[in-house]
Write a structure and sequence with these properties.
With about 325 residues, the chain is mainly alpha-helical. It contains 14 helices and no strands. It has a domain of about 150 residues. It is globular, with a radius of gyration of 22 Å. Helices cover about 70% and strands about 0% of the residues. The longest helix has about 40 residues. It is a multi-pass membrane protein. Pathway: Secondary metabolite biosynthesis. It is found in: Membrane. This is Membrane bound O-acyl transferase family-domain-containing protein. GO terms for molecular function: O-acyltransferase activity.
């Protein structure tokens, strides 16, 4: 769906303006994560990588996969065998019922269960990244063994092997994991821009934020706010579409969740920017980070069931250690 949307967006703008392909935008977090300053010659970092470095990195990823897979195995077993009764009524509506009539909207165990499910999702994404790095490493190894040297030619003049080698090295060695540390986020922007997975960040920005901001160019503040809402709305639509396809369950649970976080992000930016006189590019000290973390975490945890409950209703659990179920899923077992 996003591929189709991006293709139509390309047709709707000036033909001279080129936007990255969908596949290219999936790796948009890579350049921002490189631990190399922009004004330095990154070629020396690429040429410094040896087969030994690659072997050690792959061993590191294999160890992480084993540890995380064991944790996932225990998590999946618990989640499958201890599913709480999730009401059909949306979490957001139950919260409104509580505010209106005082009816309880969730119990502590369900909160705990949702927290475990989010942990499962985070570890799952992390394992996928480790698997990808191993695959990239297997592709990179012969390029390193055959001493495919980089050069200083313009990007379009470099050979395919050199481009592949440089991309693989930058991805494996100088890229943050797909899923960083969401539990230690200190603000909505930090969570959505740095800690949570960034796979669709650029695509959503091009399809939502930039067009809306341009349309309201006469009012920059309004354009920024509505652009943020547009990005989160698209994300909610995509997640609800997945829920329809995978679980045959139609709702707007994810739209509500993401729009809540859009408003939360806007409010946070207003308070921090206007009242405290702070900007998003300021590096906070330790005390400020602790204070922001203490404010952000409870609100994020409060909204967590709105995101997790639709998946829990669909019993979306998967373990890499469940060999029998994996074989059945792949059509290998009788």
């Amino acid at each position: 769906m996003i591929i189709w949307m991006k293709k139509n967006y390309q047709f709707s703008i000036d033909s001279k303006t080129k936007i990255p392909s969908f596949i290219g935008s999936l790796f948009n977090w890579r350049p921002n994560a490189i631990t190399i300053s922009e004004d330095s010659n990154y070629q020396k970092y690429i040429d410094s990588i040896t087969v030994k470095d690659l072997n050690l990195e792959m061993i590191n990823h294999i160890i992480k996969i084993i540890i995380k897979s064991v944790i996932l195995g225990f998590l999946v077993k618990f989640l499958r065998n201890n599913v709480p009764e999730i009401p059909e009524r949306s979490y957001a509506l139950r919260v409104l019922d509580y505010l209106w009539a005082g009816r309880p909207f969730i119990d502590l165990y369900t909160y705990f269960y949702c927290y475990l499910w989010i942990s499962y999702a985070i570890i799952n994404f992390s394992v996928i990244w480790n698997f990808n790095c191993i695959i990239y490493g297997l592709i990179l190894r012969p390029l390193l063994s055959n001493c495919v040297k980089g050069d200083k030619k313009p990007q379009e003049q470099k050979s395919l092997k050199i481009n592949a080698k440089e991309w693989l090295i930058l991805t494996i060695f100088y890229t943050q994991p797909l899923m960083s540390n969401p539990y230690f986020s200190i603000s909505p922007r930090d969570f959505w821009s740095n800690q949570w997975h960034q796979m669709f960040y650029l695509a959503f920005q091009e399809l939502g934020y930039l067009p809306v901001r341009k349309y309201f160019s006469h009012n920059r503040t309004l354009g920024n706010m509505l652009g943020i809402c547009a990005v989160f709305l698209i994300s909610g639509l995509v997640h609800d579409y997945i829920a329809i396809v995978v679980f045959n369950h139609f709702s707007i649970d994810f739209i509500v969740f993401f729009l809540f976080h859009a408003l939360f992000l806007i409010l946070w930016e207003v308070v921090e920017g206007k009242i405290l006189g702070r900007r998003k590019n300021i590096n906070d000290g330790f005390i400020i980070r602790i204070i922001k973390f203490s404010i952000f975490l409870p609100i994020a945890v409060f909204s967590l069931p709105q995101f997790a409950e639709p998946y829990i209703r669909g019993e979306y659990f998967y373990s890499y250690l469940d060999i029998r179920k994996n074989l059945e899923k792949w059509g290998v077992s009788n």
